[in-house]
Amino acid sequence: MKRTVDVSVPLGPIHPCFKEPARVKCETKGEYVLSAEVELGYMKKGIERIMRGRPWQEVMFLAERVCGICSVIHNMVFIEALEQISAISVPERAALLRVIANELDRMQSHILANFSYCYTIEHETLGMYLLDVRERVMDELERITGARVTCSYIVPGGVRFDIRSEDVLHLRANLAAIEGEVTRYMRMFESGPLIGLRSKGVGILTREAALEAYAVGPTARASGMPDIDRRLRHPTYKTLGFTPVSRTEGDNYARIMVRFQEVLESIAIIRRCLDLLPVGPIRGGGIPGIGEIAYSGEAPRGELSYYIKTDAAGRVVDISIQTPSIMNIEACCHYMLKGVPSLADVSSTFVSADPCIACTER
Amino acid sequence: MSLPIIPYLQEIARLEWLHKFFFVRTAPLVTPSYSRGFPELTNKTCTHALFCMMACPAPGAIDVIKTPDGWEPRIHKGHCIRCGLCVEACPNGVLTSGRILESMFNDSTRLSFSFRIDVDTNLCMGCGNCAVACPVNKLIDTQMAYGGRASTDQLLLKVSDGKCHVLHAELCTGCKTCENHCPNEAIRVSRLLEAVQIAEVEP
To answer: How many angstroms separate the CA of residue B49 from the nearest CA in chain A?
Structure first.
């Protein structure tokens, strides 16, 4: 007769499927996961300590380097917090250009997350297709801001570069191509039987569990919580009138599909911005002054909060950052990984919550 | 899930994919012209305004050094983060990187500077190192250059009655020499950067 032995199986910190190092320790019975634990701390940068005492024009670049994948939103939240402190207003054209850069960044981040998931369910072909689409998005980001990541596009009172008319044409053409491709890959996800076997009903996070774990971002939206989107409270996004995506299944499949749908949503937002783009200045000027504020924005992975205290010369006296991934990692190890049918699904479930370790450990 | 192979076959049999499979070639790796690379020199003459050094957020990434042909900015590539602020800050367009110079010309955008000197009166012991070290003071008053007493009140910094006074803050060039020479960290210079756009004048 076969005996079942309870063992603790560690995954990581170096794992071919993880983008960044993290250790997932699973208490298993056979292959059935009873409980899981996530160990962090393999890539601490101490970036908040480096930021303290520096002038804002240096911290602006450090803030972008908190995370390599979602750098634009870090720039945006930091600069908007400074603007709130010193009551700097932004011209309308600049506000819309910020949204365009931010949504392009969100698209590439979501596509990368989905690539990563495809890799863990061993569908590398689809993963490579997704990376191909991501390159189009990165090209657009580079065309507008001059850099693929760490764009440093947003400055207090505006943005650094204007978008040109030929860039608008290029962007519209590329958006149409990306939309076509992404819809095709979504169809593959919907109809692909093997993808369905690995994704549907695996790693379920119910709405109650998501509320308990304070899950944020696409992870929470896949469990039927559309109001979690911080963009609904952003003044520029409010005028664009978008509706957040949400699904109710709460499994791996729902999380991936929410990201795909958000890519399409982002494309719609960018198109609306391009339609609304008025002629006018892109910089309003303004020097950050003394003050203290806590400010949040919606990163690709969820709510990102900055607490900043500055002195009269615009130096950052105190700063603390809260990134979304820590919530989702908690939700992942306490709720999603419990009851996962096999060890192969542990890595895919962990990756489907899109943990960004660089953000989390800073 | 009756016949799982059919969607895959459909995927492979697309004309677009077959064309790609047989005919497509990898595009050559070229850096696009709009990519913001390391700043490069144009043929304009550097006037030693040092705004590139004032704007640079990365410590030790840019220096302006004297060569036999005149002043010249040098980029240290190991430190440079390719943000392009030095390109925007230069009043003479000595540096270029990607499309920054072009877009500054098209959108009439620029970075403007002002400097602010804060003296902490609790920490300041009135030693006068800052006033003697200040290169602006040295230019205005030659006596100061040799560590002597100040002969005029038209100085940037002056120590009198055992207190440091900032007399003409508008003369400051933001070099931070006073900050480096202060034994008590009582004086601090902050560079206030403002991203502005000059409205086009209607003819």
So the answer is: 20
